[in-house]
C-alpha cells in the first residue's frame, strides 16, 4: 500500500481539520460530547500510521530479504513505533483526565509526551552531530 505525498498531506490535513472542529465545538460547549469522541480523528489517523508502519516492518520477515541492507532503517522504524505508542498513551491519559475518569496529577499525564519530546531531541541530535562526522 503506497500513498503519494499529496495523498498523505491531504489525509493529514483532513483528520487535523476534523479534530480541530470537534475540539472547538467541545470547548465552546456547543457539543456535550465525551472527550474520547473528540479524539477519534486522531486515533483513526494514528491507527492508519501504525498499520502502515507494522506492514513495512513485517516486510523484513519475508524470505530473500538481506538484513544487512537496512539495519539503520529498522532502528528508525522501531523509534517511530515507540513514538506512536507514547503519543497514544498521552492521548489516552489526557482524555481520561479531562473526562474525570482518574484523579491522576496533570504532571503524570504529560510523562509520555515528555518522553516523546526527549526522544525526538535525542534523535535530532544524533542525526545532526553523529552523522556529520562521517
UniProtKB/TrEMBL annotation:
Residues passing through the membrane, by range: 36-58, 78-100, 106-129
Keywords: Membrane, Transmembrane, Transmembrane helix
Residue ranges that the Swiss-Prot or TrEMBL entry lists as coiled coil: none
One Pfam family cited in the UniProt record for this chain: Tmemb_185A
Protein name: TMM60 protein
Gene name per UniProt: Tmem60
Amino acid at each position: 500500500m503506497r500513498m503519494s505525498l499529496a495523498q498523505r498531506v491531504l489525509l493529514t490535513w483532513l483528520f487535523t481539520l476534523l479534530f480541530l472542529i470537534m475540539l472547538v465545538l467541545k470547548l465552546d460547549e456547543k457539543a456535550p460530547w465525551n472527550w474520547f469522541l473528540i479524539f477519534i480523528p486522531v486515533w483513526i489517523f494514528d491507527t492508519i500510521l501504525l498499520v502502515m508502519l507494522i506492514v513495512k516492518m513485517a516486510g523484513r520477515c519475508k524470505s530473500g530479504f538481506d538484513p544487512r541492507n537496512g539495519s539503520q532503517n529498522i532502528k528508525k522504524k522501531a523509534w517511530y513505533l515507540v513514538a506512536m505508542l507514547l503519543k497514544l498513551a498521552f492521548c489516552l491519559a489526557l482524555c481520561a483526565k479531562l473526562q474525570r475518569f482518574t484523579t491522576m496529577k496533570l504532571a503524570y499525564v504529560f510523562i509520555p509526551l515528555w518522553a516523546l519530546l526527549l526522544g525526538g531531541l535525542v534523535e535530532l541530535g544524533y542525526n545532526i552531530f553523529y552523522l556529520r562526522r562521517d
